[in-house]
Amino acid sequence: MPKATTLKQNTEFHRAYGRGKVKSAPGLVTYVVKNKGLGCRIGITTSKKLGSAVERNRCRRIIRAAFSSVYPQCSGNWDIVFVARFKTKKLKSSDIEPIMAEQLSQLGVIKAQTGADI
């Protein structure tokens, strides 16, 4: 599986916050915005309100692990920003994955499967 590139510049994050579409859940907030042919790129933000650096890094690892299983289904050129919430600390990547997949499908990043699962 190819590795998704990451957003690093503050302007890239602010572009997603300002112009992007958003879906939120108690464990995760997702912002998406189209980019100019750069593939699927992700960024993860965690606030200091979540706790110490250890807890924030754990939240980032959980989100990254959940996205690695959802990534092959992504189609198009998108900048995706995931924002960890307080409840994210108590969840596992297997708990975040269905939330993430649902949010990304509602936002149009993941195309819906058609009738093969009957």
Polypeptide structure, described:
The protein is of the alpha/beta class and 118 residues long. The chain has a single domain, classed as Ribosomal Protein S5, domain 2 (2-Layer Sandwich), CATH 3.30.230.10. It contains three helices and five strands. It has helices at residues 10-19, 53-70, 93-106, and strands spanning 5-6, 21-24, 28-34, 41-45, 78-84. A five-stranded mixed β-sheet has the order 1-4-5-3-2, sandwiched between helices. The model has no long low-confidence stretch (mean pLDDT 90).
Quick synopsis:
With 118 residues, the chain is α/β, with parallel strands linked by helices. The protein is built from three helices and five strands.
Mean pLDDT, as a whole number? 90
Q: Count of DSSP helices? A: 3
The Rg value, from CA coordinates, equals: 14 Å
Unreliably modeled segments? none
Relative strand content: 15-25%
Structural class: alpha/beta
User: What's the number of domains?
Assistant: 1
Largest sheet: 5 strands, mixed
In the CATH scheme, the class would be: Alpha Beta
Please give the alpha-carbon distance between the first and last residues.
27 Å
General form:
globular
- Please give the share of residues in helix: 25-40%
Biggest sheet: strands side by side, in what order? 1-4-5-3-2
Order of helices and strands: EHEEEHEH
- What would CATH call the architecture? 2-Layer Sandwich
CATH topology, anyone?
Answer: Ribosomal Protein S5, domain 2
User: How many individual β-strands?
Assistant: 5
